[in-house]
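<instruction>
Derive structure tokens from the sequence
<data>
Labelled lines for chain and fold
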Amino acid sequence: MKNPEMVSKPNQERRLEKETGQSPITSRRRRALLKQTDGIPFEQMPYQCFQEARKVLQEDRKEKLEAIQQQRERIARLKESRVEPQDEGRKQHRLDSMRQKLERLKILADINDPVVKRRFEDGLGDMNKPIYRHLAHKKWLAYKRPLLMQRITQMNVMPDVLPHVEPSISTELSFAKRRVQHGDIVDSRVSEIAPKMTIQPYDRGERLYTIAVVDPDVPNVEKDGFDYRCHFLAANIAVSPTSTNVRFSTLDAESQTIIPWLPPYSQKGLKYSRLAIFILEQPLLDPLAPATSAQRSQSIDVAAIKAADRYTQRDGFILRSLVNSQNLKPAGVDLFRTQYDEGTAGVMQRAGIEGWDVEFKRKRIEPLPYKRLKGESTHPSLLAAPRPTPTAKRTQKHDSEITARYIQLVDPSTNRLYEDHATQQPLPPRTLRGVLATLDFKTHRLIQVSPDEPRNRDFIPVCKIVEKKDEYRREKLRKEAQKESKALQAKTNSVKTLELNWAIDGNDLSHRLDRVKVFLEEGRKVEIVVASKKKGRKATAAECEGLLGRVREVVDGVKGAREVKGFDGKMGGFGVMVLQGKGTLGGKEEGVSKQAGEGAVLVAKS
């Protein structure tokens, strides 16, 4: 027996799923009843109690249908009636209330119909009808919505991304053929391809939505916190109760997609990253239209957003700003997670994402002295480092840190000692107390330029008065130069690995060699691994020589690039060659450092 409506035993159900791949329909009791009635339709069951109950329900439905007809007539009469201009608002409000009552009557007319309930349980309900939308919404509110709210609350999607969300539409996320539950951890190789989402609204009519995928767990080492990154952003997505499937990869690049799909990833050492998916309802064309009518939504000018370049940057993406500027309303939310796995590095490399070889490590927090174990405080590696004094971070003394009684001042603009205009000789030393008394410590600072001479009691240090604003600017330039130098050095020392097949197609080889050329122009080191596929075509000796020749032509075409390690391996088998790109540092840091420097102090001898 292979009829999914007739099997009534567990072994028959297992055999049906194994042989046909179908699941039994409705409950086992109903299937057993249908099997015993010899094909009699469900609504013609020969049981007296069942038929009597159906008569009562049919009479009730007849009363509801009469009430529906009366309500429609009342609405028609009210629409045709003429009222004063000042009463037009009251008329529209009354019409809206009457339409809502009409929708409730439509639901009540079919809410107890066993045929309607059976079609809904079998998944055959027409979502264009109010009764099926009502039953689906009620089912979603009973279990799936509380579960969704629990997940996004426990994982702090609210308020990390948006302060408040009240979902009114249900969502289902799937990658390829895998359905993802709310909050599931998805393998990085599975989420590399853009997903498909089923969005089920429960109001009539077609609406336009904006979908945003945001990662709020992007580490920021400098501020010891986290930033936001947008992995996908698209607008003007039409969804209705009967048109619910949205494929991220098939949306129009000109009128819908603002930021294309970026594979989610979490770097090594991090716990996991949350990927929050928000479905934002776009504003209506007529906000005063009745809630029961098929309302139309406003479309977003995607070209203007791209031209403004405000919401096209992935890093630092703030969803709150987009919601406020476009007057969007959060209507749905979903969530999945990603963590570092064996495929993350490959996914990041294929997507051109830097940092695939970076590992985050947590700093150890030293225990307080009274919480240390016995003997732990004597271990040098566990002792807390002493708090540095202000003078330990710099080599020059400031203001009251200067110990000399007399000082010699220099002009900060010329870095020469102040001179007497008449004699052209340096001015005599001044007392430190007198100079500090005339100094405004909010805007200026006294700095000792010459080093101390502890054995010289008559030592008079050379000092100068500088503006704190200028000193801050120089320090900022110095830090920026140091940061840029480290970034360039890390980029130069990074190694890119590229795999090639001896029998690779010509177009694929050209594409990969173009990437090798880009890496070499950036000054990176490139490791090329050449091997043959186990079940693929074996390349000839001429093809192998031609492949290596193509690689060397790319190296010769990049100025400053060289072959660090020649081909090492078996021709036609496994082999490795290492290339090095051109240098990119070239004294850039030195030029910035000279701008940030303070300059030498020229002291004229008296």
The chain is about 35% helix and 20% strand. The first strand starts at residue 170 and ends at 175.
